[in-house]
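Supplementary Methods S3. Input chains for the assembly prediction are listed below.
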Amino acid sequence: MTLSDAVHEPDLAVHVEDLTVAYHAKPVLWDVDLDVPPGVMAAIVGPNGAGKSTLIQAIMGLVRPTAGHVFVHGRPYAEQRHRVGYVPQRTSVDWDFPTTVADVVTMGLYGRLGWLRRPGRAERRQADAALEQVGMLEYRDRQIAQLSGGQQQRTFLARALVQDADVYFLDEPMAGVDATSEQAILSVLRDLRDRGRTVVVVHHDLQTVAATFDWVLLLNVRAIAQGPVSEVYTAENLQSAYGGQIALLGQLELGSQHDTHEGHTS
Amino acid sequence: MFRPSTKSGAGRRNQRLGSQLRPRLVPSTCASSSKAGPARLARALLLPFGAAALGTVMLATPTTTFAQDDPLNVVATVGMVADIAAEIGGECVTVVALMGPGVDPHLYQATSGDVRDLGRAELILYVGLSLEGQLGEVLDRFGRRTPTVAVGEDAIPPAELIRTSDAYGVDPHVWMDVSLWARIVPGIREAMLDALRGARDDAANLAACQEGMHLRAERLAHQLEALHDWVASATSTIPEHQRILVTAHDAFTYYGRAYGLDVIGIQGVSTESEAGVADIRSTAATIRNAGVPAVFIETTINPRTIQAVLDAAADLGHEARLGGSLYSDAMGQPGTPDGTYLGMLRANTVAIVEALGGQPPELPEALSDWANRHGLGGRQP
Amino acid sequence: METLASLAGDYTVRTVAAGALLLGVTSGALGAFAVLRKQSLLGDVLSHAALPGVALGFLIAGGRSFAAVLAGALVTGVAAALTMLLLTRRSRLKTDAALGIALGSFFAAGVVLLSYVQGRAGAGQAGLETFLFGQAAATLRSDVWLMAGISIVAIGLVLAAWKEFSAVTFDPVFAASIGLPVAILDATMTAMIALAVVLGLQMVGVVLMSAMVVAPAVAARQWTNRLGIMVLLSALFGAVGGVAGALISASGRGLATGPLIVLALTAIAGFSLAFAPNRGLVSAALLRALERRSLADRRVLGALEALALQHDDPGYPSEQGMLDAYLGTASGWRLRRLRQHGWVRRVRHRPEEGIHWRLTEAGARRARDARSEERADMRGEGGNR
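Predicted structure tokens for the full assembly:
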């Protein structure tokens, strides 16, 4: 690919062009363009089967796209792996695995350690720091089978945090999680955003989008609309994205009604 | 003619031809009743003369009998039976063996090719005594419509069989004692003649075959007797204290009983049982205690078992060597001397006797014919 | 019955036991990863699919060359594993269906080839049937050296790439996202398991080999929650089962070694499933029973406490009949047990009335603590026990 020599769209944290993924001739994603500016907390929303998880996986090369390319901070994704952190869905793993919270978090550093090197004191410190950030330090030696859903999610988040990445992709991190954990996770994400990192979250709850995120992509196989929440998160766009599937449209907090950059609590 | 199991089916076209050439030797003597005319007379005279001429032509060809054109189709299970049957039947029969060299009859299961062969057979011969363990049902089925004879079971009186303690109750390896195996000769001869009588209606054929088979059977019996004596004298040259035969499974008990050797097999009688650690250990101990110089493998058995025994005996301080390969449940390659029953016993005896420190004598007069025929020059053993 | 000492000194027993030990260690250690990856039946596919390779190796090499037979087994085994992989990736088949297809077709081909070889006019194909159930007793010293070499390589690889293997086993998707070569690691692990399986073929046979990969790992999982300990235990159990099977079969004539090894391993696994602390069935049942009892106790204490509160008398004597009615069940024996703990005391109230019970001070404290424990549980703190 000749594109790898040039720097392409360096001002964007994530630049996706023409991304298409099709399983057995049925497209899951089609002609998706995505331009995420740096330093935002972005949400990807859409109905079930809209391809939200697939989009993240295709961006990270975990799923092979039929067409399209992905650039992170101006360079192809393949060169920027170390600058991207990933928090997959909690249910993607069998939690009955014999390992501790600390071990899981340390796994985030394996890519950096290289072959034959064992994680040492430096790695332990990094892992503990990440655990501290998500409020899980006291659980570091606990078996992951004994964790609640929220604790599992925070462990996954810590695993991504140790990578000290510039862009984070999270797949439904707040689904099925108790209130304490949700708070902890949001606080970490906001902190990342405030420090200039980019956070992209596949979000499941339409109600909380406006209060939580600055930037949104409405996705339903195609990119319906994307941009700052205040401009894009409108009833009209939601109708387009969801077809007739939104029953409680009137009760949603929409973008145009709220200033999302400062002072939201809860 | 004896053909081993090649599954090619090429040689069986002959049978078809036979039925077309069946001239009548007995001319029709009854003249036609009234109708006159020299034409009829000429025709009446033409027939016997034509037949006589044709008959003369055919008789003129040396060593040709009519039966050659339509030999009895005999199917035998193991080569040892097939060889005997072929020797007796000569050109009156075509013998096919289902199991070739290296095939284990205890474990052999019939393939669809075998079933086809059995379907075409006019006589089926097998050993019996539970040797062909997996063929029981098949033989049963064919036994209902084709003459099927358990030659071993029929010919050998139960009193002379060796009992075993396993599920089969009796040791089927009776061909290892030549004097016992010779007993199947009359039975096979009669079975083949009966089958011929039943399946062919050519009296002259039958008479010729009957005479031929009797002659050949008697010659074979002489050969077997001579072989039996020769084996006995060969084994007697083994030093007294070394007359122990150690081999992979108990196929040689009859041989041991007939020719004065103690036989130790590592597995049980049938190869279906697996040799365990204890089996190997006790055999190694026995070898060491008896001071046996050599141990034998069989063509149908895994040679690693024997090697394990030798290694164990070596560790106990007794160096025994591999005395060679013996034919136990199957003969050698067809076309070689070892591919016949006589050859099988000869080869086994030579290997055993030489490895255990004896010196086998020359082959007797009665077997020199056989030796020459198979390219074993002179009467060297 | 011979003594263990005399058995242990015997050459054959030592050789077979050494081979079984090496096999147990290797298949146990590798099997731990296979089981955690939910690929337990991979060993089954590899071993059953080895059968056509065994027959082909014999046909091609023209004799009983052990190396050719093992090489053939490895080739067809790996081919079957790849077939399974392709079937799951390229079609809609799930792993178990793909497994059934791969295993069935390769094994059937193997049986056909074996019967073909059996019927051929060629001496020396003897003993190929021993690959079905193995002939462990016929293990030679040279076999043991070969097994030792392969075991060292396999264990060495696992140790060297320990963190990569554990990451890929736990979360292959995440491992891929941080740049670990998941496909290569997967293939390497599969190849190593295939190698272990092929080694075990002549000892335990095609049909039973999968048990050697699965049973030790299942047993090990029951005793520990740490991956390193689990792999170690799995190797240990494999070794113990192997040696035990070898020794037992040495003790009497006519005892097939391979199947006995598998039985020993299964016994270990069965015992572990039943009696391991925490995860064992028996311990879990005991734990549940204890919890039920403690819950019932708390109810009784709670009832006494409530009554005491209502009557504003911490030492209020409640009549047993009243307690029974309140709790909906006969509580006499429970109260007696609580008395043994010192939490309640029997009192006589009026001579014509029945037994009365009252809380002791310790009992009152216990009732209070139980209440606050319950509230904490309901708030969801501390996760599961």
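Chain C has two domains: 4-279, 283-377. Chain C has a mean pLDDT of 86.
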